[in-house]
Amino acid sequence: MGPVRRFDLFSFLLVLGLVLNSFVLFCNGGQTSSFVRKVEKTVDMPLDSDVFRVPPGYNAPQQVHITQGDVEGKAVIVSWVTQEALGSNTVIYWKENSSKKYKAQGKSNTYKYYNYTSGYIHHCPIRNLEYDTKYYYMVGVGQTERKFWFFTPPEVGPDVPYTFGLIGDLGQTFDSNITLTHYENNPTKGQAVMFVGDLSYADQYPNHDNNRWDSWGRFVERSTAYQPWIWTVGNHELDFAPEIKETRPFKPFKHRYRTPYRSSGSTEPFWYSIKRGPAYIIVLASYSAYGKYTPQYTWLEEEFPKVNRTETPWLIVLMHSPWYNSYDYHYMEGETMRVMYEPWFVKNKVDVVFAGHVHAYERSERISNIAYNIVNGICAPVKDQSAPVYITIGDGGNLEGLATKMTEPQPEYSAFREASFGHAIFSIKNRTHAYYGWHRNQDGYAVKGDTMWFHNRFWHPIDESPSFDS
Ligand SMILES: [Fe+2]
Question: How far are the Cα atoms of 70, 204, 249, 258, 293 from residue 298, in angstroms, in the given order?
């Protein structure tokens, strides 16, 4: 009996040890990066910086930017500003290696904000483009003409590879410039940017100095004129300032930036959806009403059934305020929207949610928190293979600086977090796999600070954690 008892005790201790070990693993969070950076104040680049230079020539178009102009990716909206005079609303465009030129006619507007009057802001949709084609386009027709180019996406379909860049909370500091430079020089070339809100931070200046909207437009033109940036609005787009009688939220953003919201049945430019190659992208508005019966709620409820994963396997959601965030900054701000919409995200197997707002980086496990019903007390996030991965990428480098304080201990659902500026790349390979990498500004262009192979939730919904990696 004696030896058997000793064996039982040994087995018991072994099992106990394993249980305790797994308990510790379960209770501890993921990784808080040990990367040590030099903490410096983030400062806006002065207005006479070369990145803000006004293009030479009379009434030269400036702040040129493009975005997708329809649901399918066969239209582009070209926008630009002329400062001295109205100039032409026309865009001339042509296919590479073709001498046949097309013309599209846009519209222009101006706006006033407190003591600021904008230049002439032009928006011109160009439609019926061919997929997967390089187009050149020209603006400033008849005055100072400027030429740019872009590629249309491949035809919407399940196995067309496509690579997105991710940038958030960019602003216009020296760090913002480093972020944009790193994105441009990343050897994995992004073909379009999913921008998760907070563009210029002009509202940080007295009277929301809208000249800083202009300088931001000139700063990012080197990317936005050549590839579409898919816009999400953040709190810094509100520009709501009743103290100076500016009470129409989003006034500068609405005049300057376009989204193809009507094409997806939305009634406001702040929430909409597009398809691009293999992806279905839903953009939500953290600062517009989203409760039951509101226009955004009604739209989103009708939107999910439209997603056909056989056509667009990858379901991506963009928003500004994150639902899962373990930094001290903006803690719980996304909670009410999470309570409203998270069950839909799990039911519809959203692959990934990208948010900004918190000026740092964080990636979650696949988790959900949808069991709570007021009386049952079940209110902790749990691992859920039908749930999205939540990524906070508000680390573009704006003048408010880094969010460095984190909640401790790191929550179980947080897989990786680091307070550094950077950008990310989400590279869809086919219907089952996408490779994701986050790049911190301090590293070389090819270096990744955090990576993950995504397995599509509809076509290949297996656990992506390292022990299950395939
Ligand atoms: Fe924000």
Answer: 21, 34, 21, 22, 6
